[in-house]
Design a protein that fits this description.
The complex is a heterodimer of chains A (324) and B (320). Chain A is α/β, with parallel strands linked by helices and 324 residues long. Chain A has helices at 45-53, 80-89, 98-101, 108-120, 124-137, 143-146, 156-168, 186-203, 214-220, 238-243, 248-255, 318-323; strands at 3-14, 17-29, 34-38, 61-70, 73-74, 91-94, 174-178, 206-211, 223-228, 231-237, 305-308, 311-313. Chain A has an eight-stranded mixed sheet with strand order 6-7-8-3-9-10-12-11, sandwiched between helices. Chain A has a four-stranded antiparallel sheet with strand order 2-1-4-5, with helices on one face. In chain A, helix 4 (108-120) crosses helix 5 (124-137) and helix 7 packs parallel to helix 8 (186-203). Chain B is mainly alpha-helical and 320 residues long. Chain B is built from twelve helices and no strands. Chain B has one domain (43-75, 99-319): Orthogonal Bundle (MetI-like fold), CATH 1.10.3720.10. The longest helix of chain B is centred in the middle third of the chain and has 37 residues, at 108-144. The chains are: A alpha/beta (324), B mainly alpha (320). Chain A binds chain B through residues 53, 55, 59, 84-89, 92-93, 95, 97, 100-107, 114-115, 118-119, 141-142, 146, 148-150, 153, 155, 157-158, 161, 163, 166-167, 185, 187-188, 191, and chain B through 1-5, 37, 39-42, 146, 209-211, 213-221, 224, 228-229, 232-233. Chain B: This is Oligopeptide transport system permease protein. Chain B: It comes from Streptomyces harbinensis. Chain B: Its main location: membrane. Chain B: It is found in: Cell membrane.
């Protein structure tokens, strides 16, 4: 396995007390595989990613329990300098908002080349040539002329492609893309996702795709992990999950996608709001919003039941959910 | 969408139009002013604005002139400021001595010209010192946060609490050295907290930007993040503040010299001359000996403060 997250717990200290952002998340990604982590804002998907990258703001954030194994080595017990060398070189991250993730006062070519200067000790000239090559790889037109341009001179799609180029610069083994297409137009979204998938296949990288967009996931992912209130509630291969969801939350998400064949009907919405992470409901954290909740759900915390090989659901009544 | 920017309109189709428009030189018509697709950083943008700002041009020319005469005062003053003839004490203006003579019979014009050196030197050195110390301390406090922030900020507050003039009088009357360095040192030691606070705030703001997080995620070291990504985005307010402070430091040097604790004769400075001119009754009989050094001082301070204002306008368009 390329990356294995085992029983990760992350907590934040805040004025409201301890906020449990991640409560025992486990997932794994192999080389060449795409894992989509799906969930609404505040479900802990980005925090998990930050913990893997080692860029969690601490304080106030703290990893209280768990392991993050990268090629079998625990990142959490590793020295700071060793950890820094892994970032960028072995694993890299693509951020949601490319405009704010690029330094406005430095030309993009300089920022791309920085990867080679930091990790490979390249000279200015070498790193500039490498930057041009990278820009060509992500299909920035006239890369040679535009290498000295500043981030604000590029369109949103081009900026996101530059972010991708930056993450890919040193050909890492693992890429974490945190909502890479959320800030883009729908047409550009497809282009960026295609490029990302293509480059991923070419370099055989593991990809963790964090998103709340079910449409993006369907095309790109191999495996999906659905997160709710800092936990994985369903983990399944992509086709199986779309066909027959085994958790009421996943089912709710799928039913709330607008569909042409249900024109004229009201759009389904999951009632209620995601829980306050400082006061997660007892039992199953989804029970106050769940359409099939029983008394047991408010008391018993559901474990991850094995639904099928490679497939699990954290619902006591998964059989009922998957059956109808 | 992701198409390349339109190339600037050059080439044959445009050329005849340019000639027809009476350009005369037959150059292709490129729109002036906004050059499309031209890379412009914050600094080149600011420079573009500054060149067109009359306040900046006037104050910059004045400052250039002052710097020039403080390096080579003999360019415009032929005599020595220390060769005085007591027999001509308090004499008024005359041919070759347009500003007249002071109590000691020294040429006021020469002394005013030579006085620029001490004032500019104190102002520039104190500002450099303040900017360096303030940026380093404020920057580190803002960047590392937590314990270091608390420690450095409290130290900053302690220095901030010392009244500037009082502190300077106490320090300077304790140490028995003369010359410009003790004055520079005292001004720098008492004024850096202002810059430190501004630098700390600017660094905290810059630190929260996504690109800092992104740089961390790509494996950049603390030093690289601080120097390459945070500092260039946080330095503008420090530069503005430092330029404005430079003017006030020159005034402060004059104040301290006037109070008798700053520069002392035989050092030639505007403060020393103002001090000498305002003791006793000379001012009533010979106002020129106070007027000229005071006017030079005011003009210099004004030039630096105007420069600071213009730089601030250029660097922070939101304030306009």
């Amino acid at each position: 396995m390329l990356l294995e997250v085992q029983d990760l717990h992350v907590e934040f200290t805040s004025r409201d007390g301890l906020v449990n952002a991640v409560n025992g998340v486990s997932y794994a990604v192999d080389a060449g595989q795409t894992l989509a982590v799906l969930g609404e804002s505040g479900s802990g998907k980005s925090v998990t990613a930050q913990a893997i990258m080692g860029i969690l703001d601490s304080p106030p954030g703290r990893i209280s329990k768990g392991k993050i194994l990268f090629r079998g080595e625990d990142l959490l017990t590793m020295g700071r300098e060793a950890r820094r060398r892994i970032r960028g070189e072995k694993m890299a991250m693509i951020f949601q908002d490319a405009l704010s993730s690029l330094n406005p006062v430095l030309p993009v070519g300089y920022q791309l080349g920085e990867m080679f200067r930091v990790h490979r000790g390249a000279s200015r000239k070498e790193s500039k040539a490498a930057a041009i090559e990278l820009m060509e790889r992500v299909r920035i037109p006239a890369a040679r002329e535009r290498v000295g341009d500043y981030p604000h001179q590029f369109s949103g799609g081009m900026r996101q492609r530059i972010m991708i180029a930056m993450a890919l610069a040193l050909e890492p083994d693992l890429i974490i893309a945190d909502e890479p297409t959320t800030a883009l137009d729908v047409t550009v979204q497809a282009q960026v996702m295609d490029l990302l998938s293509e480059l991923q296949q070419e370099y055989r990288m593991g990809l963790i795709l964090i998103t709340h967009d079910l449409g993006v996931v369907a095309d790109a992912a191999d495996v999906i992990a659905v997160m709710y209130a800092g936990k994985i509630v369903e983990h399944a291969p992509v086709d199986a999950l779309y066909k027959r969801p085994a958790h009421p939350y996943t089912k709710g998400l799928l039913e709330s996608i607008p569909r042409l064949d249900r024109k004229g009907q009201d759009l389904y919405a999951i009632k209620g709001l995601p829980p306050n992470l400082a006061r997660i409901p007892p039992g199953c954290s989804f029970h106050p919003r769940c359409p099939i909740a029983r008394d047991r759900c408010a008391v018993d915390v559901p474990p991850l039941y094995e639904v099928a090989p490679d497939r699990s659901s954290a619902c006591h009544y998964w059989k009922e959910t998957i059956g109808d | 969408m992701s198409e390349p920017p339109q190339p600037p309109p050059v080439g044959p189709p445009e050329a005849p139009i340019a000639i027809a428009a009476g350009d005369g030189r037959g150059e292709p018509a490129t729109p002036t002013g906004a050059e499309p697709g031209r890379a412009r950083s914050l600094w080149s943008d600011a420079w573009h604005d500054l060149r067109r700002n009359p306040v900046f041009v006037i104050s910059a020319l004045l400052i250039c002139f002052l710097v020039l005469i403080s390096i080579w005062p003999s360019l415009i003053a032929t005599e020595s400021p220390l060769r005085c003839q007591l027999s001509r004490s308090l004499e008024g203006a005359s041919a070759g001595h347009w500003f007249g003579f002071d109590t000691q019979g020294c040429d006021v014009y020469t002394r005013t010209v030579y006085g620029a050196r001490a004032s500019i030197a104190v102002g520039v050195c104190a500002t450099l010192g303040v900017a360096l110390v303030g940026t380093v301390i404020g920057g580190l406090a803002g960047f590392f946060g937590g314990f270091w922030d608390a420690l450095l900020s409290r130290v900053t507050d302690m220095f901030f609490g010392i009244p500037l003039i009082l502190g300077a009088i106490v320090f300077l009357s304790m140490i028995k050295l003369s010359g410009i360095w003790p004055v520079v040192l005292v001004i720098a030691a008492l004024s850096w907290p202002q810059i430190a606070r501004i630098a700390r705030g600017a660094v905290i703001t810059a630190k929260q930007n996504d690109y800092v997080q992104a740089a961390r995620a790509l494996g950049a070291s603390h030093a690289r993040i601080l120097l390459r990504h945070i500092l260039p985005n946080a330095i503008a307010p420090v530069i503005v503040m430092a330029t404005i402070m430079l003017g006030t430091f020159i005034a402060l040097e004059a104040t301290l010299s006037y109070l008798g604790v700053g520069l002392r004769p035989p050092t030639v400075s505007w403060g020393v001359d103002i001090s000498a001119a305002s003791t006793g009754m000379q001012f009533r009989n010979a106002p020129h000996i106070l007027l000229y050094p005071a006017a030079a001082l005011s003009l210099t301070v004004l030039a630096f403060i105007m420069l600071g204002d213009a730089v601030r306008d250029a660097l922070d368009p939101k304030l306009r």
